[in-house]
Specification:
Oligomer: single chain
Order of helices and strands: EEEEH
Radius of gyration: 11 Å
Structural class: alpha+beta
Distance between the termini: 32 Å
């Protein structure tokens, strides 16, 4: 069973980006949500996901 948790929130000029940590039997992945909707992913590290969200914001 996979679990999801918001681990970081980045506020851009017009949008809010949430970094979501998804962990399951196979490992951990990070995804980006834009204004609450799925946007980009998956990333293997939190740093990579944050960098991608900051670039968009």
């Amino acid at each position: 069973m996979a679990t999801e948790k918001i681990v970081e929130v980045i506020y851009g000029k017009y949008h809010k980006f949430e970094i979501v940590k998804k962990s399951d039997f196979w490992g951990i992945e990070f995804y980006i949500r834009k204004d609450g909707n799925p946007y980009k992913g998956s990333y293997s590290t939190l740093a990579a996901a944050v960098a991608a969200a900051e670039k968009e914001g």
